[in-house]
Amino acid sequence: MAQLVLTPADKGEVDWICLDQEGLGPVSHLRELDFTPCFEHLSGSGMLVIFGLVAGARCAQLVRRQERHETSEGARLLWAKLLIGALPLVGLSSAQLILTVIQHHGSVISAPVIDAVVTLISSLFIGVLTYYNHTRTRRSSTILLTLWPFYLLEQAVAIRTQVLLHRSPSALFAIQCALLGVGVISWTLECFCPDRVKQDPDAEPEDKEFPYERANIYSRLTYV
């Protein structure tokens, strides 16, 4: 991968968004097999912006559907997804944004702050999409199950970069690690599809339905 080399004039033009001495990168010239922090922030933000657009469109579609009357098991799974997954994501993302703004002395136009803002907004979309998908469909969200592997990989790479920089542990680093952990939990919970709905006595039992109808994207891709 070619290294983007910035001239002094170029650096002056991007200083307002990239405050790190390594510049926009993408490849770090100080560490082997690593990206620059600015590139990680901006690439991660770009991925989450795309997710937000797709998730927003999906929520607009789902909100027009009739809500399912689910069983108690399904309700407990939904509460677990929201309380153990979505809510901690919003809380951690909010704390990350506040600490990032403080660390950058109130500068709101910089790669780390932009990344923190986009992460917070995306965490809200995750909660909303989780709710509507669970209450209005009968399978796990394909959008979320596609997002999580890429998001967790991006978080792991960013954490690795912080470790390679040999910076002393900070609250922001702890939050980043916590986001990775909560992301793993949320991903795991999302793999469980919404529970069977309460049925009309005259309806055909769901036990007779083809399992493919309720399978998530992973099961469908590996179905033989």
Could you characterize the architecture of this molecule?
- It is found in: Membrane.
- Pfam families: TMD0_ABC.
- Residues 17-165 form the ABC transporter TMD0 domain.
- It is a multi-pass membrane protein.
- By secondary structure, the protein is mainly α.
- It has seven helices and no strands.
- Helix 3 (72-103) runs antiparallel to helix 4 and helix 3 runs antiparallel to helix 6 (171-190).
- The longest helix is centred in the middle third of the chain and has 32 residues, at 72-103.
- The protein is elongated and about 55 Å long.
Chart the SSEs and their pairings.
Layout: H1 8-14, H2 37-62, H3 72-103, H4 111-136, H5 142-164, H6 171-190, H7 217-221
Succession of helices and strands: HHHHHHH
Strand content: under 5%
pLDDT below 50 for ≥5 consecutive residues: which ranges? 1-13
Major sheet size, sense and barrel closure: none
Number of helices: 7
Any key phrases for this structure?
224 residues; 7 helices; 62% helix; elongated; disordered N terminus; transmembrane helix; transmembrane; TMD0_ABC; ABC transporter transmembrane region
Give a short summary of the structure:
The chain is mainly alpha-helical and 224 residues long.
